[in-house]
Design goal:
Layout (H helix, E strand, L loop, with lengths): L1 H6 L1 H17 L6 H26 L3 H13 L13
Length: about 90
């Protein structure tokens, strides 16, 4: 479930918003201001979840550059060619 929330934060926010609208249509006493505030909180939480999920899927360029530098500086040992015995 958490992986779905991380991969689809906009869909989760939309579903929660639809549930709030459904509750309002059935008479739950939520004012327009409260709905706007709830939407704002959902949007902020969704943005944080999206940022966290995206961060887990990328490699920082500093780490890539360090690996490239290490690969360029580290000499590889030369393996001698096998001699053919006649």
């Amino acid at each position: 479930m958490l992986s779905f929330i991380e991969s689809e934060p906009a869909m989760v926010i939309g579903v929660l918003d639809a549930v709030i609208m459904l509750l309002i249509s059935f008479g739950v006493p939520i004012s327009g201001d409260q709905k706007v505030q709830i939407d704002g909180v959902l949007a902020a939480v969704g943005a944080l979840v999206a940022a966290y999920a995206t961060r887990q899927l990328v490699t920082p360029t500093s780490k890539v550059q360090a690996l490239v530098n290490k690969a360029l500086v580290t000499p590889t040992p030369l393996v001698p060619k096998p001699e053919v015995v006649k």
